[in-house]
Write a structure and sequence with these properties.
About 20% of the residues lie in helices and about 25% in strands. By secondary structure, the protein is of the alpha/beta class. The strands form two sheets. It has a six-stranded parallel sheet with strand order 5-2-1-6-7-8. A two-stranded antiparallel sheet has the order 3-4. Helix 3 runs parallel beside helix 4.
């Protein structure tokens, strides 16, 4: 058992991000057995869940003539446009059935505001609007965070970087993550995490 000041943060292990899903990450389901084992080792576990309305502004379908994986400028900065995914209440938004959800202390949903995307477990993509996760962890006395899940180069990386900026001690277990790797996004994310003081481990 790890120290009571440690928490495991499991990012977006949902059907739409696993093989067969609308925004599948290659091998996304392969990490689930290890994540389930890790949950038994941590006193606190938090699951995050991408949770979008049908007409979310990050969907390429909401931008006439736009293709998925292209970029547009939003009021809060550049935004990658995605295929429709993780629409709240759908099977795609549900946690993968292989994931053990019972051990979770908290499930935090993100991306539910129609006009702004949310990669990070801590802030919307404007880097200002908080999800409330930091306050929850601090009230629980948590100082050390371990991140796993999907996708390494987007939601995992953004969450880990924000956690480090907020003063938590942060590590990412890369073997318990999978990446999209969109136009070099994986190496860019690794560099950004290291620069923020995030420890990358296997």
């Amino acid at each position: 058992m790890t120290d009571v000041t440690e928490a495991l943060i499991v990012i977006d292990v949902q059907n739409d991000f696993c093989p067969g899903g609308a925004l599948a990450v290659a091998g996304g389901d392969e990490i689930i057995p290890r994540i389930n084992r890790l949950m038994q080792e941590f006193p606190v576990t938090v699951l995050t869940q991408d949770w979008h309305p049908e007409e979310h502004s990050s969907f390429a379908a909401m931008h006439e003539g736009a293709a998925p994986f292209t970029q547009v400028d939003m009021p809060y900065g550049p935004q990658t446009l995605w295929p429709v995914h993780c629409v709240w209440g759908t099977e795609g938004a549900a946690f993968h059935p292989g994931l053990s959800t019972d051990p979770a202390d908290l499930v935090i949903r993100k991306g539910f505001r129609p006009q702004i995307d949310s990669y990070s477990a801590f802030f919307e993509n404007d880097h200002v609007t908080p999800t409330g996760l930091a306050g929850y962890l601090r009230e629980r006395g948590i100082t050390d965070l371990t991140f796993v899940g999907l996708a390494l180069d987007f939601c995992v990386a953004w969450s880990a970087i924000d956690a480090a900026k907020l003063g938590f001690n942060v590590r990412v277990l890369e073997d318990a993550c999978r990446a999209i790797d969109l136009d070099g996004s994986l190496e860019a994310a690794r560099a950004a995490m290291r620069a923020a003081g995030v420890a990358l481990e296997q």
